Amino acid sequence: DDEAQNGATELHMDSTQAPVQAYAKLEGPDFCYYVRTLEVTLGRHPTSAHHESVDIDLGDSKAVSRRHAKIFYNFVSQSFELQVFGKNGCLVDDEYFKRGQAVTLR
């Protein structure tokens, strides 16, 4: 099914839904994603078929690259990490990380 292929599922939970089995949950002001694979990509939705799609669409802002970052499980450190690919970097817990850096997620 599409959810298994995408690796992330966008859900708007209400009290009638059953619990979701996932490795992690990402929450923002208007969304909630359940991560169901050990690696997901974050970015802007591609504008053509020539660009690869992302698992988590961060919106249409040009500040977000088409492939902005990935979240993956690091088996050595036994934790999830975020690796930054976007030229504008990203903020994690109010700390700025530039392209090429990785940060362990809590």
From TrEMBL:
One of its GO terms (molecular function) is sequence-specific DNA binding. GO terms for cellular component: nucleus. Residues 40-97 form the FHA domain. Keywords: Nucleus. The keyword Nucleus applies. The keyword Nucleus applies. One of its GO terms (biological process) is regulation of ribosomal protein gene transcription by RNA polymerase II. This is FHA domain-containing protein. The lineage of its organism: Eukaryota, Fungi, Fungi incertae sedis, Zoopagomycota, Kickxellomycotina.
